[in-house]
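Predict structure. Chain length: 402.
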Amino acid sequence: MSPAFSAVLSAPQPALSLFPDCPEHSPNDRVPELAQLCGDPRGESSERGSADCPPLDQKADRLNATKLVGIARLAASSPPADSRRSSPQRPEYFVLPARSILNRCDSNRVPFEWTINPYRGCEFGCKYCFARYTHEYMELDASEFEKRIFVKQGAAAYLPQELARKYSYESAASGGQAPDHIAIGTATDPYQPAEREYGVTRACLEELAKREGLSISITTKSNQVLRDLDLLKRIAEKSALFVNMTISTTRKGLARLLEPRAPQPELRLSAVKQLREAGISTGVFASPLLPGITDREGDLEAVAEAAHGAGAQWFTSGVLFLTPSSSKVFLPFLEEKFPRLVERYQQWYTKNTYAPEEYRKKVAARVARLREKYGFDVRPWDEMKRPVNHRMAQLRLDLGVA
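Prediction complete.
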């Protein structure tokens, strides 16, 4: 890797602000709270009795679990999860002993109060993924993000009490007029292959389907979301529900290069169509837009046209940003596959997380033109803050609230 690119890994980075790919906290603020995402139902850190006994197959050079704290300690002692998959290419799965699944998002840069991430790590292996930083909180290298998947198995059982205790139907952000918003899949894809085996996402949706008056969104790259169409319909009958399908390009070969194990774009577009036909509010995130790779004339337009054809209600895109963690994987990939872009990325990203403001403004104007052309007149983050009709008295009765 060139010296200029290496500098990216240690340069100070500004906080993130894009909605489609928002972390639970800023990846540049190594705050203690991120080491306590698996705390007890009161939100406090808690480790089970087996935390001092790392599984026998841990690598010899891993830190001893007794020297770690919070999520790092839990990860080090997480036992292997049973898997039906035998392929040598499959990732390692571990059961993370989580006692919480509903996590508060304290950032005022995003339009939601709560996040649900059923897994830590994602097998899709997207080269540009910002969320690799979450593995560093577990004292794992960012490159292991798609190789070591941690399953919050059984954590959905805590969701009812967390909703009863934490969730508000009169959020401060809406002036008390709308409920808090819960974003599912902000850091890892809730419908990655692990979901077929462990079903943590479905377990969470089953609990959410028992409530009414909630505000929920799901962000995914997978057509596997269609498996839960029955639950999505039930949720949409009683709560506000939005599904965001991420499609960075319609070019099949490029998608396979950038997102090695994610479903192909045509499968995602088909899922958008089927979700819309089922009456589920659905839109497309063409994010991130990669300078020199997915931003050529006609590329973004092709995604917008395909989204419109599938019935998507909204469309948006955000330019790539590079955190230190994501840079460790993306920059070597760029040097190997797109060497002609190396100099441009050196100039843009060596000292900054974001692309130049002038470029981002041009992309925003381009997106605005596409929205107008295809009639994408719904903005999900606005809809999130609209009142949701629900029978409050019945809801309180269901939750056991006096």
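Summary: The CA atoms of residues 162 and 320 lie 34 Å apart.
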